[in-house]
C-alpha cells in the first residue's frame, strides 16, 4: 500500500478540535471553556517566561512511560503541594494516554518551546513521547486508549475523540518536517520507524472499517483489539456506526497524496454512507442560563443544514442516544440532564467533507465517484430509516400473559418456587383491582403500558383483607414482595394505593409497593399513593439493594421513597404535598446510601425535600428542585425527641443540583466532604452497591421484555 505523506496535506477540519480543550473543562452544564495555553501556536508566546514556566510543568507531568495523563490543566500555576504530588506520580504506568489529545498536545507544546529556546530538555522529552507512542502500537497497527497498564475497555483500538487520527497526523507532520517539527527535533533513525508505524496505522483503519451485507460503511469509536469488531467503551458508548470519529478518519484518508485502491474504496463507501444517513429538518438547540446549559433539544427546522447522529445502531442503522445505564434511547428527552447536556449526540462534521470529496474524487478516482449532496432529503425524511423507532416487547419471551379479568396472582403461582431463570409475566392494558403478592425470587412483572396498565387498591395496615399468604404474614401494599422474593423486576405499570381519596381522608401508611426482598428493580412505573411510604423496600436488617429508574412518584404523605439499605434512583419525578418526600435508613453499615441522580422534585404546596431519624446517607446528583421544595437541607425528623442518636451524623451530599428561586447554601456542591470524595460521574449504580450488584446489566439482559 502506497501512502507516502510528504507534500500535500489537507487542512484540519474545524471540528477536529472537539475535545482538544478537555484539560480546562468547566463543571457540567457550563457552556464555555477558557483558552487552553497548551494549544498555543503563536511563536512570540514561546519566547516568554510564562511559556517556560508551563514547559517546566509539562516536563514534571510526563510519566516514566514517556506519555502524559489527560484532563489536567498543566498550564495552571502549580502549588508546592501539587508539584510534590505530581513528582510522586511520575512512576505511574496506568494513566498515560492519547485520549482527549493527551500526550500529542504536550508534545506539540514542547516542540514549539524547543524551537524557540533550544533547550534540549524539551527535545529529549519530546523524543520520549515519540518512543511512548511507538511502544503502544499493536501488531495490527492500532493503538489502545491507555498503556502500558490497561483496564476495562482501554485495550480496545481507540478512534474515540480522534485519538488515533491525532497520532497519525502527528506522524505526518514529523515525516514532512512541518513546523514546529523540523530541525534536529528528531534524528534520522526515527524516520523509518515513523513511516512503518504510519503504514500500519492506515492499514488498521482500513481493516476496521465496518462491512455490512458485503458493503463497507464507516467506523465505530473503538474496535476490539483482537477481532477488530465494533466494541463498547463507557456505558453510553455502545458498538455502533459512529459519524463524528468516522469523519475525521475519512479526512485523514483523503489527505494521503498517493491513495491506493483500498484507500479509494474506503473513502467512496464512507461518503456514500454519510450521504445516505444524513438527517435533515432538525437542528440541535441548547437552552442556556448564562454559562449553564439547562437543556438540549432536537428541534424541527426545515431550513437547517444536515446533521448526523453521533451513534447509529448496528441493527437498523438508526440514530440513538444513551444514558449511563447503557440502554439505547431514540429521544434526547429520555436521557437524564447530565448525559443529555454533557455529550455531543449530534454533529455536522461529515458535512465539511462533501466539497473536499468532490475535488478529491475528481483528482484521484473519478470513475468510481459517488454522487453525494447536502441538499437532498436525509434518511429520516426519505423513508430510509425510522428515526424514532419505538422499542418493541417480544411477547413470545413471556412465560404468562395476563389479560383484564385474569388474576395476576395465579400467574405468579405458575412460576417455580425458586425459578433458576427469570419468570416473565406480561400484564396487558386494563385496570386490575387486585393485591399482588410475590413470594418467590426471579419474578419479572411487566405491564403493557405504564399509563394504561393500572393496578389499584385501597388499603392500609389496619384494613388489609389478606394478612397471610402461604402461612406467612403479608404487609400493606398493592404489590407486596415477601421476604425471599429477591431479584424481582417491576416495570411498565401504574401502581396506586388510593385509600386516602376513596375510603377515608387520611395519609396513614398506604404503600403502593412494599418489599422485603433484595436486589429489587422498579422501573418505568407510576408509583402513587394517597398516604405515607408509597415505595417502601425494607429488606430485613436494612440490608437490601434496590434500583429505580424512570419513575413518577406521587404522594401527599411523608417519606414516599423510603429505602432501608442501598438504593439508586435515576430519571425520577417526585411530586409531594407538604411533607418530606425522601427518607433513608442506613443503620448497621456506613456504606449504605440513597443515591438520586438526574431527577426532579416538585410539590403542590411548600414541602421538605427529605428527613431521617436513623443513620442515613443521601447523595443527590444533577437534580432540580422547584420553588415549592423548601429552602432547607435534609435533616433530622424530630425536634422534640430522638429515636436514634445517628452516630455518623448528618450525611447529605449534592452535586450540580439547583432550586428554583435559589437556596441558602445548603445545596452547594460538597462531594469532597463525602467519604472518598467521589467525582459526580463516578456516582453510578455499581458504585452505590459497592460492585456487589449490577442492576443495569440485568435490565439490559431483559430488554427484550422490558423495552420502553
TrEMBL record:
Keywords: Lyase
GO MF entries: carboxylic ester hydrolase activity; lyase activity
Family matches, as SUPFAM superfamilies: Family 10 polysaccharide lyase, Pectin lyase-like
Protein name: Pectate lyase
Organism: Phocaeicola salanitronis (strain DSM 18170 / JCM 13657 / CCUG 60908 / BL78)
GO cellular component terms attached to this protein's record: cell outer membrane
UniProt cross-references to Gene3D superfamilies, sorted A to Z: 1.50.10.20, Single-stranded right-handed beta-helix, Pectin lyase-like
InterPro entries reported in the protein's UniProt record: Pectate_lyase, Pectin_lyas_fold, Pectin_lyase_fold/virulence
Amino acid at each position: 500500500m502506497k501512502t507516502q505523506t510528504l507534500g500535500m496535506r489537507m487542512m484540519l477540519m474545524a471540528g477536529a478540535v472537539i475535545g482538544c480543550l478537555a484539560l480546562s473543562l468547566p463543571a457540567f452544564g457550563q457552556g464555555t471553556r477558557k483558552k487552553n495555553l497548551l494549544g498555543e501556536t503563536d511563536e512570540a508566546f514561546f519566547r516568554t517566561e510564562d511559556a517556560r514556566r508551563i514547559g517546566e510543568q509539562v516536563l514534571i507531568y510526563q510519566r516514566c512511560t514517556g506519555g502524559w495523563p489527560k484532563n489536567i490543566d498543566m498550564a495552571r500555576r502549580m502549588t508546592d503541594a501539587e508539584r510534590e504530588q505530581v513528582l510522586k506520580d511520575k512512576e505511574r504506568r496506568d494513566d498515560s494516554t492519547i485520549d482527549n489529545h493527551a500526550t500529542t498536545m504536550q508534545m506539540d507544546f514542547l516542540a514549539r518551546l524547543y524551537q524557540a529556546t533550544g533547550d534540549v530538555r524539551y527535545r529529549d522529552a519530546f523524543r520520549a513521547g515519540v518512543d511512548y507512542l511507538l511502544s503502544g502500537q499493536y501488531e495490527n497497527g492500532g493503538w489502545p486508549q491507555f498503556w502500558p497498564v490497561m483496564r476495562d475497555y482501554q485495550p480496545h483500538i481507540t478512534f474515540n475523540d480522534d485519538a488515533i487520527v491525532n497520532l497519525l497526523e502527528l506522524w505526518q507532520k514529523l515525516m514532512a518536517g512541518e513546523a514546529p517539527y523540523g530541525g534536529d527535533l528528531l534524528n534520522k533513525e526515527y524516520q523509518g520507524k515513523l513511516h512503518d508505524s504510519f503504514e500500519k496505522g492506515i492499514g488498521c483503519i482500513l481493516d476496521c472499517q465496518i462491512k455490512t451485507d458485503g458493503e463497507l460503511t464507516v467506523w465505530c469509536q473503538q474496535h476490539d483489539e483482537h477481532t477488530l469488531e465494533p466494541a463498547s467503551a463507557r456505558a453510553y458508548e455502545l458498538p455502533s456506526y459512529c459519524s463524528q470519529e468516522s469523519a475525521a478518519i475519512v479526512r485523514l484518508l483523503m489527505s494521503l497524496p498517493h491513495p491506493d485502491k483500498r484507500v479509494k474504496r474506503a473513502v467512496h463507501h464512507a461518503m456514500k454512507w454519510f450521504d445516505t444517513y444524513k438527517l435533515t429538518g432538525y437542528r440541535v438547540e441548547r437552552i442556556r442560563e448564562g454559562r449553564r446549559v439547562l437543556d438540549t433539544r432536537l428541534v424541527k427546522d426545515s431550513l437547517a443544514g444536515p446533521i448526523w447522529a453521533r451513534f447509529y445502531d448496528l441493527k437498523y442503522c438508526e440514530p440513538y442516544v444513551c444514558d449511563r445505564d447503557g440502554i439505547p434511547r431514540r429521544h434526547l428527552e429520555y436521557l437524564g440532564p447530565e448525559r443529555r447536556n454533557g455529550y455531543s449526540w449530534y454533529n455536522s462534521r461529515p458535512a465539511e467533507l462533501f466539497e473536499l470529496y468532490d475535488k478529491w474524487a475528481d483528482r484521484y478516482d473519478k470513475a468510481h465517484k459517488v454522487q453525494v449532496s447536502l441538499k437532498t432529503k436525509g434518511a429520516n425524511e426519505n423513508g430510509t430509516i425510522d428515526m424514532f423507532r419505538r422499542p418493541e416487547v417480544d411477547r413470545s419471551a413471556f412465560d404468562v400473559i395476563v389479560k383484564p379479568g385474569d388474576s395476576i396472582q395465579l400467574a405468579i403461582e405458575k412460576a417455580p418456587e425458586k425459578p433458576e431463570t427469570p419468570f416473565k409475566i406480561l400484564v396487558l392494558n386494563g385496570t386490575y383491582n387486585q393485591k399482588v403478592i410475590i413470594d418467590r425470587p426471579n419474578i419479572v412483572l411487566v405491564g403493557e403500558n405504564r399509563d394504561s396498565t393500572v393496578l389499584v387498591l385501597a388499603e392500609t395496615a389496619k384494613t388489609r383483607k389478606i394478612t397471610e399468604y402461604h402461612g406467612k404474614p403479608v404487609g400493606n401494599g398493592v404489590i407486596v414482595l415477601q421476604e425471599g422474593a429477591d431479584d424481582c423486576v417491576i416495570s411498565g405499570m401504574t401502581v396506586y394505593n388510593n385509600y386516602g381519596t376513596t375510603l377515608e381522608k387520611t395519609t396513614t401508611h398506604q404503600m403502593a409497593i412494599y418489599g422485603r426482598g433484595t436486589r429489587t428493580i422498579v422501573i418505568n412505573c407510576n408509583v402513587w399513593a394517597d398516604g405515607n411510604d408509597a415505595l417502601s423496600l425494607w429488606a430485613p436488617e436494612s440490608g437490601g439493594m434496590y434500583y429505580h429508574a424512570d419513575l413518577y412518584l406521587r404522594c401527599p404523605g411523608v417519606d414516599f421513597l423510603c429505602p432501608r439499605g442501598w438504593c439508586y434512583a435515576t430519571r425520577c419525578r417526585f411530586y409531594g404535598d407538604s411533607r418530606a418526600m425522601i427518607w433513608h435508613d442506613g443503620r448497621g453499615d456506613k456504606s449504605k446510601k440513597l443515591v438520586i441522580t438526574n431527577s426532579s422534585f416538585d410539590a403542590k404546596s411548600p414541602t421538605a425535600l427529605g428527613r431521617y431519624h436513623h443513620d442515613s446517607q443521601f447523595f443527590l446528583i444533577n437534580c432540580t428542585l422547584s420553588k415549592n421544595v423548601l429552602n432547607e437541607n435534609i435533616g433530622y425528623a424530630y425536634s422534640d425527641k430522638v429515636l436514634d442518636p445517628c452516630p455518623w451524623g448528618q450525611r447529605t451530599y449534592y452535586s450540580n443540583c439547583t432550586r428554583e428561586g435559589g437556596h441558602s447554601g445548603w445545596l452547594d456542591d460538597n462531594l469532597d466532604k463525602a467519604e472518598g470524595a467521589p467525582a459526580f460521574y463516578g456516582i453510578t449504580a455499581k458504585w452505590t452497591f459497592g460492585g456487589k450488584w449490577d442492576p443495569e446489566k440485568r435490565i439490559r439482559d431483559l430488554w427484550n421484555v422490558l423495552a420502553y
